[in-house]
Sequence to fold (240 residues):
Amino acid sequence: MTSRTPVLSFKGVNTHYGAVHILKDVDIDIYAGEMVSLLGGNASGKTTTLKTILGYVKPTSGQVLLDGEDVSDWPTAERVGRGVTMVPENRRLFKRMTVKENLEIGAYLRPGEDLSSDYDRVFELFPRVKERLAQKAGTLSGGEQQMVAMGRALMARPKVLLMDEPSMGLAPVLVAQNFEIIERINKAGTTVFVVEQNANMALSIADRGYVLQTGKIVLDDTAEGLLANPQMRQAYLGEV
Fold:
């Protein structure tokens, strides 16, 4: 695997919010077609990692690489144009807009293009979204809003799909369905990077995982290796 260029990398990334040091010499490699999980508790730096990938936060040192190219100084729109898209925590839909309008926003960098194949892909994964196209997004259930948020991201034809806490605020049965769909998206060829507190669920579908603790990567292994790791089992899987 080391002979290939990762589709997304962090190389010695440090970030700060003012004087507060958030990410500390973080190294991450994600290869095309993989599903990789980033695990950790609250305030571990998980969301800052995603913001740094998208350019909302710039590293104070280190590099963010897309296909081997340093994009650390690129604006967010250029990174999205290169195929990096996120499903944000708590969905973040435009609630006064219709479902269809929310989906259209996902393809805003491709004005005038025929989006029929993109809609077909979304409707195949989420038949209920097709039934709700004219409905205001804010009137949907939490599970339906998550479907629309994922559909909106897919409308961008992502090369790398970032998922920020996809289980948050969902009933257990919906969490299981959500992760099944994430797995289907990955198996269809989209690279997925999942940031998640639910370690068991995330690792059940991931190829590899990283564990972030107070801004540092403290574990890095295959999903199977992390599930079997005593430190992981005690700290993140609730076992003694």
